[in-house]
Amino acid sequence: MKLANHRGRAVLVVPDGVLDIAAASAGRFGPDIQSVLADWVSFASWAAGADTAATSGPVDVADLDAVVPRPGQVLAVGLNYRLHAEEAGLPIPEVPLVFTKFPSSITGPVGDLELPTDQVDWEVEVALVIGREARRVTRAEAWDHVAGITAAQDFSARDVQLAGGAKPQFNLGKSFEGFTPLGPYLVTPDEYDDRDAIELECRINGELLQKSTTADLIFTVPQVVSYLSHIVTLRPGDVILTGTPSGVGLGFDPPRFLAPGDEVVTTVALAGRMQHVARRPERAFDAAAILG
């Protein structure tokens, strides 16, 4: 099953087009995709037998909004691919290195990316969307609590992220407006031949810079979901970014960052392709001027 957020309305994506969920369910689910996620178990049962005859034609990805526009929590795992840890010159983590991204950074799968500083980096990620409340779940139970998979970017202003010396500002450096695109589609795990080996890649101006699969994760999806659920209660609609593979700009010598006009294309198998074009900000971020 594949879902999308079409101009603020939840739709099922089927071979012949899209099905408006609220209309097809006579108002039982939707139209807001967040309300569909909030009642995911009942919705999934309904969708399995839904009549898909009343579809509209294919939609333009540019008309799709963030597949989860208002998550309660956005959790992310750092250094979760071995080669990425190595390119960062850091030891392989013994436990998941977790940070948060603020929901105000969420944006859609197509659009402009404002560069608040001259050190904005790219990080393609496979994102999980929670469909059932998860509290102290086991690894064996973890996938049962995942509604679906989507594509994400963890854009990062490295100068802001690494400010503060021994106390870097991961949350802030990764939470500028537009720094967490999600989409274009939410795909249920059963659609994958191997849900533990999902392909992902990132291209900058057509150049392939990141490519891997989640089979290379240091901490697997079941480990991550179980670990987090023993610390915080994961609720329907929460988003977990599972990590980025090697090939980020900070790993280059010298480091390489996005410049105005650069096109970032993010792809996750089945979840689709996102496209963002970097542009100059209306007002650049200047910590020294702000703080006086």
Give keywords.
292 residues, alpha+beta, Fumarylacetoacetate hydrolase, domain 2, 2 domains, 5-stranded mixed β-sheet, 17% helix
Structure explained in plain terms:
- With 292 residues, the protein is of the alpha+beta class.
- It has two domains: 2-59, no CATH class; 74-291, Fumarylacetoacetate hydrolase, domain 2, CATH 3.90.850.10.
- Helix content is 17%, strand content 30%.
- It contains nine helices and 17 strands.
- The protein has helices at 21-24, 33-38, 40-47, 82-87, 139-142, 158-161, 170-173, 221-229, 287-291; strands at 2-6, 9-14, 17-20, 74-78, 97-100, 106-107, 110-114, 120-121, 124-130, 146-153, 156-157, 180-187, 199-204, 207-213, 239-241, 263-268, 272-279.
- The protein is globular.
- The termini are far apart.
- The mean pLDDT is 95.
Structural class: alpha+beta
- Report the average pLDDT across residues: 95
Question: Tell me, what's the shape?
Answer: globular
Kindly provide the name of the CATH class of the largest domain: Alpha Beta
Low-confidence stretches: none
What is the number of strand segments?
17
Beta-strand fraction estimate = 25-35%
Helical run tally: 9
Instruction: State Rg.
Output: 19 Å
Per CATH, the superfamily of the largest domain is Fumarylacetoacetase-like, C-terminal domain
- The separation of the N and C termini measures 52 Å
Instruction: Output the CATH topology of the largest domain.
Output: Fumarylacetoacetate hydrolase, domain 2
Q: What's the CATH architecture name of the largest domain? A: Alpha-Beta Complex
Biggest sheet architecture = 10 strands, mixed
- Describe the oligomeric state of these chains in a short phrase: single chain
Q: Helix fraction? A: 10-25%
How many distinct domains? 2
